[in-house]
Amino acid sequence: MSRTVIHGGLVVTASDEIHADVLIEGGRIAALAAHGTDAATSWSADRRIDATGMYVLPGGVDAHTHMEMPFGGTYAADTFETGTRAAAWGGTTTIVDFAIQTMGRSLREGLDTWHAKADGRCAVDYGFHMILSDVNESSLKEMDRLVAEGVTSFKLFMAYPGVFYSDDGRILRAMQRASGNGGLVMMHAENGIAIDVLVEQALAEGRTDPRYHGDVRKVALEAEATHRAVQLARVAGAPLYVVHVSADEAVDEIAAARHKGLPVFGETCPQYLFLSTDNLAEPGFEGAKYVCSTPLRPREHQEVLWRGLRTNELQVVSTDHCPFCFSGQKEMGRGDFSKIPNGMPGVEHRMDLLHQAVVDGHLSRRRWVEIACASPARMFGLYPKKGTIAPGADADVVIYDPGAEQTISAETHHMAVDYSAYEGRRVTGQVRTVLSRGVPVIEDRAYVGHAGHGTYLPRGTCQYL
Ligand SMILES: [Zn+2]
Hints:
By secondary structure, the protein is α/β, with parallel strands linked by helices. Helix content is 32%, strand content 23%.
């Protein structure tokens, strides 16, 4: 069995910060030992990695990506190959992507399609959630089988009427099923029926620029849908995970539910923490780069999101990575913001942006690792295989240089998209080396991985229940 030793670094997990050497054997963490002890110095190894002055982190777990996702007549620009490579560059070693059930088709067919897209192409490990677009007797039954085989979370939409939208009755049925089979319902909580009325009115009045995308997707309509999702989950006796929370009032709904002891969880994304409606209002058609749903909010919402992350009102930061090129894709919405494909690139920069939040004093180091690695792994049944550095865990390890300075730019990023939402932003901290199951994927800032190294991860059920 091949053995690797990482020595001299500060091992940071969600629970500890310890100066320890790490022994990796056959793709898994075999042992930790205090740096400089006889135990640590006696380890023989095929490879030694000097992590002096570095953090040694568990690989990031991004529980919300959309590689090659069809949307509005086009496809998200990253394939599983380019997207997982970019993830590795940014210190993320596991993604959970969304397989889509097409209206009128089975869950199985959707899942098979996504397996075919990802199989043999990923640089790092991956799992799938299932998007339920057509809740009916047979898809409800299929949910049980999917949970049993490792697809244990199901996303429903209160937005996008005519595409992914489910009405309250369908949502309730899916939640009832999840309460019986151990599945976790993930909710896109925005009142899409009301939003569509506002979109129609805005366009009729000539308000067609990208910034009106943010205008019509009201805070109240995110908060209302979040409230309704919580009540439906409560009636069904099911847990609920609200994806991409962006509005302060939606955080309040989640906090209130948790205060009552309900199993309600919330996720936010870097774009809501670092960007705002100011970006959507950038001149020309530049705002289109920042069109995603839920939308970016006015700046003052950011402090509520940071507070939510600190106080565990929100548990996870994922990216909702769903990149569309500015040229040819975002441009489809010139003159009509409703035709701008919804989504932003981000899978490569989540760990760095959240480290910047550590530097800025929003988060502790351990909380950084918790919301980016450990909690998503626990939430989606991957812990402790993923999300921590402990004996027995997969050796998904990031050697992170906390003092390195970098400037985020489309010129240097590895995502297959022609712009960066963070163009020109200076951040402190950078990934040096990344191991996936003990195998180097990034080595001293060079990509040494390959498509097909990443394997599919059947998942257990949510570990917070
Ligand atoms: Zn999404």
